[in-house]
Write a structure and sequence with these properties.
eight-stranded mixed β-sheet; 21% strand; alpha/beta; single chain; two-stranded antiparallel sheet
């Protein structure tokens, strides 16, 4: 059977690329963590990397805004919005088609796209993690900012469904799952630039210890007030965590780096989920 051979999550703000040397004493540790993560992805010898991200009204608008949308293309173009990475990223359409069928079978009736373009929630991590891009990308859009949102628990279950669907693939299939977004930041709001380091560290501590219930108990209203609308993207982290569950409990997390990055207006986190 196929295997979820690697799972992780990372912040994705455009400033990671546009202002890489900001806060050099802190950003250096983050860039080193992405380098180590990329090396781990290379060692995992992946067939494809499922990248779970959101969209900032580049690909999807209010005329067509799905809860989930899976990309089925053989290549993807980046938007390059506001100076973020553009370029072309290879797809993995065979894995994507099988994953779509597996998700529908498990009650996740995802939309699908053969022409989906990628905004910075995908292109920034793929630029920092070239081995992820090289493996072949299966982008999974997840609505993290236009209510009604899928619940945190539903996103964890989506991850479980991904893991179960991957298990039905041929035995030599090795899939990675990368969640992108968060942690605390306010986007386009008066509180832009604020960071809630306490929220961030509590969040990654729960993931590190395998304590998911305190996270799942959070309401969107609480997240918005304490950590900003950008923190609603922690849904993508829960998808990555859930994909590691198999028939048991999800894997605990290993924090590779965290820093409150005022220069990037975010509490930036990078984490792996391994057994």
């Amino acid at each position: 059977m196929g295997t979820v051979a690697y799972a992780a999550a990372t912040s994705h703000v455009g400033a990671i690329i546009k202002n890489p040397l900001g806060g050099a004493d802190r950003s250096r540790a983050l860039h080193d963590a992405w380098r180590r993560m990329d090396e781990a992805i290379g060692r995992a010898d992946l067939t494809a990397m499922i990248v779970v991200g959101t969209d900032h009204y580049e690909t999807f608008g209010l005329d067509n805004y799905p809860t989930y949308c899976l990309g089925l293309a053989d290549r993807y173009e980046g938007w390059g919005e506001f100076g973020t990475p553009d370029g072309t990223f290879p797809g993995a359409p065979g894995v994507a088609q099988a994953l779509l069928a597996g998700l529908v079978e498990r009650g996740f009736d995802s939309a699908r796209s053969h022409t989906m373009r990628l905004d910075h929630s995908f292109t920034v991590p793929l630029t920092k993690l070239p081995n992820a891009a090289r493996a072949g990308v299966v982008p999974l859009f997840l609505n993290c900012n236009t209510p009604p949102l899928p619940s945190l628990r539903r996103c964890l279950e989506l991850g479980r469904a991904i893991g179960a669907a991957v298990a039905t693939l041929p035995a030599d299939t090795r899939v990675g799952v990368l969640g992108t977004g968060g942690i605390s930041h306010w986007v386009g709001l008066p509180r832009f630039g604020e960071i809630n380091e306490e929220f961030d560290r509590d969040f990654v501590s729960c993931l590190r210890d395998g304590r998911l219930e305190p996270i799942l108990a959070l309401s969107d209203e609480e997240i918005l007030e304490t950590a900003g609308n950008g923190a609603l993207e922690i849904r993508t982290w829960l998808v990555a965590v859930g994909a590691t569950a198999g028939a048991g409990e999800p894997a605990p997390g290993t924090l590779l780096a965290y820093a409150p990055m005022a220069e990037w207006a975010i509490g930036a986190g990078i984490m792996e989920f391994v057994r």
